[in-house]
Amino acid sequence: MRLGGPARYVAELSAPEDITKAYRFVREHNMAVAVLGGGSNVLGRDEGYGGVVLLNRLCGLRIVEEGGGKIVIEAASGELLDDLAAFTAQRGYTGLEATSAIPGTIGGAVMQNAGAYGQELSDVLVAVKAYDTQRDEFVTFTRDQLELSYRHSIFNSSEKGRYFITAATVELHRDEIEGELYGSLQAYLDQQGITNRQPMTIRAAVSAIRAEKLPDPAVYASSGSFFKNITVREDQIAEYRARFDGIPIYLIGACWEIASGWLVEQAGLKGKLLHGMRVSDKAALILINESARSYADLACARAEITQAVQKKFGLTLQQEPEELG
Ligand code: EPU
């Protein structure tokens, strides 16, 4: 969002030894510590950060196993998710093609189980390596230890701040996406007259949809969706549909979700400029910093949007980007 003050210390980490060294420094000086991957989904406060910000520069994609229509790759956490999506799609493997063009690193993607257009990292994740800052040792998690669900893992909830993710192992198969496609992806393919679902075709389609709808954070100050969709239980859906005519509720992965973008649009805020923050006129969940000068401006815009949605629907929006500090 290009807001917020400076950090007291910054360190770039490009090898496991850098991690142990950095955390030793942090422990010795009793300092706060925060980890950044690409930083595109993280907000800084105006007062800055009084501790150490660790920039994750761990890199490397390693094929662990390939054959029989399957590939297993270990990706260092500082690699870009999109590079892994490209690498696998180019070789004809399905599983990450619909996550194409999501900004940020593998570490960030694991932490919040990043996903888009019908796929989530959890669909392909088999293991995660991390440094345990409490026990000063490197550990390995299997996927069932990670409590992966919509934008959620142990790393951004119960174990927040404890681990520095160093690598993720993914397994993909030489195939195509099966079953129903994500609505706007199918609509795009229909409109273009495309019927094949090869990974590179889907990658190109998703990249085109994103380029049209989502601001590139390298150009526009934005963290993508600023609010999460609202997850609901299946037995609540009928009640919501009866209360709010036309409310979009979709099954995404294993979760039923109310499209929060619709709520913001219905609250009359799509395209509006609030305290320097633009509510995108293409997708109302997206905020772009046009002229906000501080985190405080963003906080005012956030409050106006959440209050408007609360007043109209009685539903509480939750912020999607993480915060430093
Ligand atoms: N909608 C509206 N008005 C809007 C935007 C959306 O009515 O202005 C409704 C429409 O019914 C539409 C539905 O919401 O059919 C879903 O919209 P869209 O496919 O654009 O997705 P989204 O819910 O706005 C989510 C993710 C995006 C991800 C897309 C595609 C969250 C918080 N956001 O957005 O992720 O790219 O789906 O899968 O889950 C991100 O997390 O930063 C992000 C961009």
Compact summary:
Helices cover 27% and strands 29% of the residues. It has helices at residues 16-28, 81-90, 106-111, 183-192, 199-213, 237-243, 260-266, 295-313, and strands at residues 7-13, 33-36, 42-43, 49-56, 61-67, 70-76, 93-94, 115-116, 119-120, 125-132, 137-142, 163-174, 221-225, 230-232, 249-252, 255-258, 273-274, 277-279, 286-289, 322-323. Strands 5, 6, 7, 10, 11 and 12 form a six-stranded antiparallel beta sheet that branches. A four-stranded antiparallel beta sheet has the order 13-19-18-17. A three-stranded parallel beta sheet has the order 1-4-2, covered by helices on one side.
Structural account:
It is built from 8 helices and 20 strands. The strands form 6 sheets. Strands 5, 6, 7, 10, 11 and 12 form a 6-stranded antiparallel β-sheet that branches. A 4-stranded antiparallel β-sheet has the order 13-19-18-17. The longest helix is centred in the last third of the chain and has 19 residues. The structure holds uridine-diphosphate-2(N-acetylglucosaminyl) butyric acid. Uridine-diphosphate-2(N-acetylglucosaminyl) butyric acid binds next to helix 4, strand 13 and helix 7.
